[in-house]
Amino acid sequence: xxxxxxxxxxxxxxxxxxxxxxxxxxxxxxxxxxxxxxxxxxxxxxxxxxxxxxxxxxxxxxxxxxxxxxxxxxxxxxxxxxxxxxxxxxxxxxxxxxxxxxxxxxx
Length: 107
What we know:
107 residues; mainly alpha; Arc Repressor Mutant; 2 domains; 5 helices; extended
């Protein structure tokens, strides 16, 4: 099957998706070439867009060893590294807290 006939499947995990993309590099290249020809290329990766806004800052957190161990296990299940997993958790918690504060302020 040529890369033009191939479709991106649904993935059960990020690890499965990464393995598929690694095994199908021609598909990604063809998709980029099609997007370029159609004028559909954007700014870049989400990380690059985030960095361009000046929002990337370093932060260090000291966590309990048990929390780090649990984060390692959960991140592995998701197929991502621990730091990315912890960033997701912190981001979600911050959004949830901000929403709760907004609801309290509005009341």
